[in-house]
Design goal:
Nucleotidyltransferase, domain 5, 4-stranded mixed β-sheet, alpha+beta, 33% helix, 225 residues
Length: 225
Amino acid sequence: MSSYTLGLDYGSDSVRALLVDVTTGAEVASSMVMYPRWSAGLFCKPELDQYRQHPQDYLDSLVEVVNELWTQVSPSVATSVIGMSFDTTGSTPVAINKEGTPLALTSEFAENPNAMFVLWKDHTSIKEAQEITDAANSADINYLSYMGGIYSSEWYWAKALHVLRQDEGVRRAVYSWVEHCDWMTALMCGTTDPKQLQMGRCAAGHKLMWNENWDGFPPNDFLNQ
């Protein structure tokens, strides 16, 4: 009996699902769903380079795209899936509470763009990115030495810093931040508790400046500048 794996690719506008036979490599079925709130242009201000995506879009499209996939295959195929993987655009972080829930999924912040995922192409944090670049290049250890020496406004720390400066409500409520790719995986594994979250090497090593040479993340005295 064949086994299958399910891949989900979260792009800027839509999520795509692909079912593959792991024995033969054959593509069995595929489907695509647009994000409803994003498609309506909600929570974005292009004139300010602000692009935010509501976590409910990711959840609703996940259910819809997978259900569409199942209509194309027999029940025996659907029950023979042995693996699942996610691919997302990044850096796309979000503020979460102590339970690992994105703040926008709580009633207090349901319509607040600062509590939503900050899409990769959001460039509202140019000032913060330059500050991080300057601090890293003047430190005893250059924490950008493996990243080209320049921190991007499209990356995790700059975006988090910008939101925390702009929104006191989010600042008070946030417990931590997590990348879209890591949150989707944690959600499916039931491990959204921030103390149990696992970070992918790409997001942590590139966007978050994690490196074995300085024992993980840059120290707090650097991050708290």
